């Protein structure tokens, strides 16, 4: 029973961290922040908790094609802007994609059930570190 309580406490803290960050963190990032609080915590436990939260629909997993999956609170459909250099992800607010979904349906006949839209760029931090002519453009 106590074990069960501790597990749900960990899940609560994962949710809290996800609420308070706009970093779209990896499981490792969450683990680093929680391991002091929960000495028995393992990265596997973090993944397992995230899996449960994703299943519940509270959390969304971003399969961005990079090495590490990232996670965020499920805020509904929105567009991501991804830094090509460091992988930082920003949410784009207030972008209506209904028109795009309608066009997709009209042109392909598919019923649209979800979306994943990403724009790629170079963030201000990376740009400051990189000479202009060395930017990754493709
Ligand atoms: Zn960057
Ligand atoms: Zn997001």
Can you walk me through this structure?
It is a single chain. This protein is α+β, with helices and mostly antiparallel strands and about 140 residues long. It folds into two domains: about 1-75, Arc Repressor Mutant, subunit A, CATH 1.10.10; about 75-138, Dna Ligase, domain 1, CATH 3.30.1490.190. The chain has five helices and five strands; from the N terminus they run H-H-H-E-E-E-E-H-E-H. It has a three-stranded mixed β-sheet, with no helix packed on it. A two-stranded antiparallel ribbon has the order 1-2. The longest helix has 19 residues, at about 1-20. One zinc ion binds near residues 24, 72, 78, 80 and 91.
Distance between the termini: 53 Å
Number of helices, counting only DSSP H or I runs of 4 residues or more:
5
Profile the largest sheet: 3 strands, mixed
Rg, alpha carbons = 18 Å
CATH homologous superfamily classification of the largest domain:
Winged helix-like DNA-binding domain superfamily/Winged helix DNA-binding domain
Extended strand count? 5
CATH overall fold name of the largest domain:
Arc Repressor Mutant, subunit A
Query: Which CATH-level-2 architecture of the largest domain?
Result: Orthogonal Bundle
Strand order of the largest sheet: 4-3-5
Structure class:
alpha+beta
Uncertain segments of ≥5 residues (pLDDT<50)? none
Counting structural domains, the number is: 2
The share of residues in helices is: 40-55%
Mean pLDDT: 86
One letter per element, helices H and strands E, the order comes to: HHHEEEEHEH
Shape label: flat
Q: Which cofactor or ligand species appear?
A: zinc ion
